[in-house]
Amino acid sequence: MENKKILLVHPEISRTKYNFAGIIDNEPLELEYIWTMLKDAGYEPFIWDGQVADEPFADKLAEIKPYAVYICGRTRQENFMKEYCKAAKAMGCVTMIGGLHAHTSYKRFYESYVDFVFRSFDIFGILNVLEERGLASVNGLSRRQGSGWIENDSEPFDIKRLPRPDRTNFYAHPRYRYLELQPCAHVRTAYCCPYRCKFCCRNKMNCGTYVTRDIEDVVDEIASIDCENIYIVDDDFLFNEKRLQRFIELVRERGIHKRYVCYGRADFISKHRELMEELKDIGFYYVLVGLEAADDKHLYRYNKKSDLHANSAAVEILNDVGINAMGMFIVDLDFKGEDFRDISRWVRRHKLKHAAISIFTPEMSSELFEEYRSRLVTRDPSHWDYLHVVAKPAHMSVRRYYMHYHILVVKLFLRAWRQGIYDFIDYKYFIGSMVKNLFKFGG
Ligand code: SF4
């Protein structure tokens, strides 16, 4: 193999205005791991990230003329992943698909222009493919053979095997951000999640096995990153109290001064006030909490293993200690008008400064998908972005549901505007387009 060029691709999130470009732009950490591994193995890897790239994918492909392309993405990016794969295949490249969507919905990529699908976090299988060796033993590999596909078994991947990522791509794009934290570097300390919330596909990743890195190694990596904002992208970082205490100890010992973003559960936060005070002290700035609902009925139905009392206590503690709580809610497809208003009231009553709303979306790989199959109103994977209604609501038309949703979102935007947060956002534009949608899609 003379051509050692490999193009690693993270497609744009969407080609409409409905994305968070310029508000949340995520560092493509998974590609940076692969980039590092390929570089170490003597390849010439390139990253093209549609969120921040200046040139279109087609130009990059024509310029580099790679031997192979590896394309990752989420459900909402499936169309782009396929489009890019087709273009690369037309140029004679080996085509590989990976990433979160492919892990669970791999059969959607069984196409004539796709050669390999990776269903595991084990990035080292990419080397086997490039060197055409030991394919039968590659963890979670699907490979095309004639018109059929051969599927290897998947096993949990030991996260400790990941290389320390080379951040060349990150430093070249200061646009990566989380809200006002810009630039903002991603750090991963674990794969999967120990909980089993019904609507969530994260707990199915890595064969459902939660694995963690040594916290000493994590702190060492954070110290080495030339960026003062760190987004710990684990599905749930606030899980093991002892591990967190060691993290705090090490950060203090090493005199690291940064701001952190992480995910945490309300039930954990509600039981660990002192720990949250300490996390605030070392720089925790945003904690993203899946509050999910403003009533216990939905929390129970989602198998959240938490309750409204924990939600209230978690927000109160975060407000008291001075960490920004980003409360994430789901507007369910069984909502009546009153349920939308309950969320808005709950946010006001609990003085929750930051709130995010997702429309309930049955993940394609979940058993919920089968439950909702007969109610689907779209099959377009780009609508699996939590901003679209993908299945018929139980108690109202899609139009009416959108009306309630848009009213709720406009209320939260106005509240954020009044509080003077997110001053980098063009509020007039966002609220204007929401009101326009209100008339276009609902109301
Ligand atoms: S705690 Fe969060 S990441 Fe874990 S299963 Fe529940 S929603 Fe998913």
TrEMBL record:
Entry keyword set: Iron, Iron-sulfur, Metal-binding, Methyltransferase, S-adenosyl-L-methionine, Transferase
Location of the Radical SAM core domain: 179-399
UniProt key word Methyltransferase: yes
Keyword DNA repair: no
GO CC terms of this entry: cytosol
Gene3D superfamilies: Aldolase class I, Cobalamin-binding domain
Cofactors required: [4Fe-4S] cluster
GO function terms (MF aspect): 4 iron, 4 sulfur cluster binding; catalytic activity; cobalamin binding; metal ion binding
Alphabetized SMART domains for the sequence: Elp3
Protein name, per record: Radical SAM domain protein
Species whose genome carries this gene: Ruminococcus albus 8
